[in-house]
Design brief:
The protein contains 20 helices and 4 strands. The chain has helices spanning about 5-20, 25-55, 75-105, 110-130, 135-150, 160-190, 195-200, 205-225, 235, 240-265, 275-295, 300-320, 320-355, 365, 370-380, 390-405, 405-435, 445-450, 470-490, 490-505; strands spanning about 60, 70-75, 510, 515. The strands form 2 sheets. A two-stranded antiparallel sheet has the order 1-2. Helix 1 runs antiparallel to helix 2 (about 25-55), helix 12 packs antiparallel against helix 13 and helix 13 crosses helix 20.
Length: about 525
């Protein structure tokens, strides 16, 4: 099984090289991308089954170099699960983009650069999830960020270039902070291997640990879009092409959350800042969802809900019990799938109606009932209605917080409930106006009641309506089916996540030339 681990990264990189060689041959590039991501999904599924059954992680020292000189790839239940989920999302969004590219030509997703960039993005995401040391985690971040710089500016429109520059500047600041923290940690402890850091960090004074801790948290908080460092996201994501926005929303912020989980539970377990994280989590939830309520454009609504629901994950991480960590992992999986699905559904709305402004779009229930269903199911899921996975994840988080029972925990529970209700309000208001409102209605009472949204930023301008290829609808429907599957198979999935939460409290393994040692 060890030989399979490096393939999670090398296969997408090899696929990107092949896709680039074949240039403008669309069918070849599409075939290479689909085959590559399918192979990664199969390998990740095998690895997940292996580590779950055995209960032992797989650690590979690339090239046989000893620690701390070699690159360590580390696959436990958490890493394998996230690679599986990411592969599913990447594959679905790829199929969506194939349909869009076939219908629109190269205006939105030019094949010459889209497929190589997309596969490089995938390689960076997978590398970050299986990195066994901080520097390789940094390399994973940089790989996916370089690819994202290309993808977020596809089409070269004025708005995409402007928001892309902001995204690049913010990402570079985060990367500089991350690299500075790595240098400081290496200078203090002589290693950046996560397992060795877990054993050696207690050698440092608490104040030094706190400085290193906060440096990493600051870098990861920017990448995860945690308030108040989330200012860049609502303006950056909505301007990108629909498939790019969908994959960014589903995966990129979660890589930052994943990095926080690794560092909080393994490196700095004796130097916690959980009270600070709880306060930040509450602010992220409330400010994010209030921003969503104030928007009149579907992509911006979803971007703000994306920010607010990152707060739930930080909340679970700050509770710092095995039950809370398991609930956090479950909610992360839920959010990756549901948020991606919603952005794909909104991409269909944009093509069908020519706009994503809830002040302009109307009558889609009759005009496009399939799209109405594809939006409605993940919307109520994200809002936390039972029995969907959003409700299961939130209830598990609230239950873990109630078991701790401090006043601050109960404040967070109330904040989480309010956030869930406001999320449901924002998404159902958009449903009511865009789908349920009759197309022939003019100046109706519903519109009058939300006249305050007329000055909301970035309300989409009307464009021409475009054909929706079946593959785009099928890809979105497939993701909706996955969201439903998270509920149907919530039992075994939550059991897996609970095992992950318990395992995160255990020491990680070290890798040497002789094998693994505890």
């Amino acid at each position: 099984m060890n030989a399979l681990v490096p393939l999670l990264v090398t296969l997408p990189l090899l696929g990107a090289a092949i896709a680039l060689i074949f240039g403008r041959q669309r069918k070849v590039q599409v075939g290479v991308s689909i085959v590559t991501l399918t192979l990664v999904l199969a390998i990740a599924a095998v690895l997940l089954y292996t580590v779950d059954v055995s209960g032992e992680a797989i650690a590979v020292s690339v090239g046989g170099w000893p620690i701390p000189f070699g690159i360590v790839l580390y696959v436990d239940r958490l890493a394998a699960l996230l690679v599986v989920v990411s592969s599913i999302v990447l594959l679905a969004v790829l199929l969506f983009s194939v349909g869009q590219g076939a219908a629109d030509g190269d205006d939105e997703t030019p094949v010459t650069i889209f497929h190589p960039s997309y596969l490089i993005l995938a390689a960076g995401i997978f590398n970050a999830f299986i990195a066994g040391d901080l520097f390789n985690l940094y390399v994973g971040f940089e790989i996916l960020l370089v690819a994202s710089y290309v993808l977020i500016t596809l089409g070269s429109t004025e708005s995409r270039i402007r928001t892309g520059v902001v995204y690049i500047v913010v990402s570079l600041v985060s990367s500089i902070l991350f690299l500075a923290a790595i240098a400081a940690i290496y200078g203090a402890l002589g290693t950046v291997n996560i397992a060795q850091l877990a054993a050696r960090m207690t050698e440092l004074p608490q104040d030094v640990q706190l400085v290193l801790h906060l440096m990493l948290l600051l870098a990861f908080s920017i990448k995860a879009a945690i308030f108040p460092l989330s200012f860049w996201l609502p303006d950056s994501y909505p301007t990108a092409p629909a498939p790019v926005t969908a994959v960014f929303a589903g995966l990129l912020t979660k890589v930052g959350v994943y990095a926080m989980i690794r560092t909080e539970t393994q490196i700095f377990r004796d130097n916690d800042v959980n009270t600070l994280l709880l306060i930040v989590a509450l602010a992220t939830m409330i400010v994010g969802v209030l921003g969503a309520v104030a928007q009149a454009e579907l992509k911006r609504i979803l971007s703000f809900t994306l920010v607010s629901h990152i707060g739930y994950m930080v909340f679970g991480l700050a509770i710092a019990t095995p039950a809370a960590l398991g609930a956090t992992i479950y909610y992360m999986v839920h959010h990756i799938v549901v948020q991606t699905t919603l952005f794909l559904a909104v991409g269909l709305v944009e093509r069908r109606a020519g706009s994503t402004s809830i002040l302009k779009v109307k009558g889609l229930m009759k005009a496009a009932p399939v799209i109405a269903v594809l939006y409605f199911i993940p919307a109520i899921n994200l809002g936390g209605l039972p029995p969907f996975s959003g409700f299961i994840g939130k209830f598990a988080l609230f239950d873990a917080a109630a078991q701790v029972g401090t006043p601050l925990m109960y404040v967070l529970i109330v904040g989480g409930i309010v956030t869930s209700l406001l999320t449901l309000y924002a998404l159902m208001r958009a449903w009511n106006l865009s789908f349920w409102r009759e197309d022939e209605e003019q100046g109706d009472e519903a519109t009058d009641r939300i006249s305050y949204l007329g000055g909301a930023p970035a309300a989409a301008t009307q464009t021409e309506r475009r054909v929706i290829p079946r593959i785009m609808t099928a890809a979105t429907a497939g993701m909706v089916a996955v969201t439903v599957a998270l509920t149907i198979f919530a039992g075994p999935l939550y059991e897996l996540c609970a095992n992950i939460g318990a395992a995160l409290q255990d020491p990680v393994v070290l890798v040497s030339d002789e094998g693994t040692t505890p």
